Amino acid sequence: MLFDAFRLNDVVLVTKYPILNWVPYHQVLNLSEPDGCWRSMDNVFPVRMVGKIVFIPVDDIICIKGAANYVEIHTPDERLLHRDTMKNVADTLCGNRFHRAHRSVIVNLNHVRELTSELGRLTLLVLSNNDEIRIGQSYREGLFKRLGIS
């Protein structure tokens, strides 16, 4: 897998996508962003890891699970640990694509494949990577509205 990176003030930005798609115009580096300053950043999520920041396309995120003081970001290819709280990640991502299904899980609604029942109630989400996510009681009604089945 090829990676693109550049260094700016002791920070190294590393991504598996061309960095020029995400960097606004910067006079010192002589870089430019044709669509305007940071416009493409809406489509990526920065994952802070030890010594680097990895930019993950939002469409690639299947779900995000809480893991103590970290969140575990699941993509089709990998699982990444990101040091942040579920609340901060939910505030950042929950919009058109993402919804909280449980107090410890945020799901990408585009990756929900089916709802399954347990004891006659729809209580599990099956995602595109075949993970089963239990739906929390307090999140059930809002999730069903977002999925259009309320």
From TrEMBL:
<dbReference type="InterPro" id="IPR046947">
    <property type="entry name" value="LytR-like"/>
</dbReference>
<keyword id="KW-0902">Two-component regulatory system</keyword>
<dbReference type="GO" id="GO:0000156">
    <property type="term" value="F:phosphorelay response regulator activity"/>
</dbReference>
<feature type="domain" description="HTH LytTR-type">
    <location>
        <begin position="45"/>
        <end position="149"/>
    </location>
</feature>
<dbReference type="Pfam" id="PF04397">
    <property type="entry name" value="LytTR"/>
</dbReference>
<dbReference type="GO" id="GO:0003677">
    <property type="term" value="F:DNA binding"/>
</dbReference>
<dbReference type="InterPro" id="IPR007492">
    <property type="entry name" value="LytTR_DNA-bd_dom"/>
</dbReference>
<protein>
    <submittedName>
        <fullName>LytTR family transcriptional regulator</fullName>
    </submittedName>
</protein>
